[in-house]
Write a structure and sequence with these properties.
Layout lengths: L8 H6 L6 E8 L8 E3 L1 E5 L3 E2 L13 E5 L3 H7 L14 E4 L10 E4 L2 E8 L5 H6 L3 H5 L5 E7 L1 E4 L3 E4 L1
Parallel strand pairs: 5-6
Antiparallel strand pairs: 1-2, 1-6, 1-11, 3-4, 3-10, 5-9, 7-8, 7-11, 8-9
Amino acid sequence: MRQPPQDSELGRLFGQFPRAGRVQWIGLRPARDVPMQPVDVVLAEAGRGLAGDRYAGGSGKRGVTLLQAEHLPAIASLSGHADLAPATLRRNLLVSGIPLAALQGRRFRIGEVLLEGTGECDPCARMEAALGAGGYNAMRGMGGLCARIIEGGVIRTGDAVVVE
């Protein structure tokens, strides 16, 4: 969604967040079709991606993928699971406490790293295999956010997520 002018009432509301978010989990995809590898710390490289992730070095628009922690129970319920591990959904960062959808087109910091939300992270066909029949649709609208790394650095589990 295009951001409204910052000097408008709607623009002011778009820029207001009740609190900072928090990184709950970090995972890397070292290669295609292999399980996610959970880590506590990762190096984010500007314009590239996360060190050790298979998407590092690509276009940069998908340098990091983020998933809303609050969506895990909903995706689990819609796909017929009691609960889901973050690794199942194959996103790099599980974030709680801040609405990721509101970060599209915005710059934000996670620890010392500056990112920019580039768009929704739509589910892929792998979700059907991971979640079972209907898994793709269970995740639609809750696939998270893709972001580019503007300024690199280290991201740690527990780091704050703060809008610039």
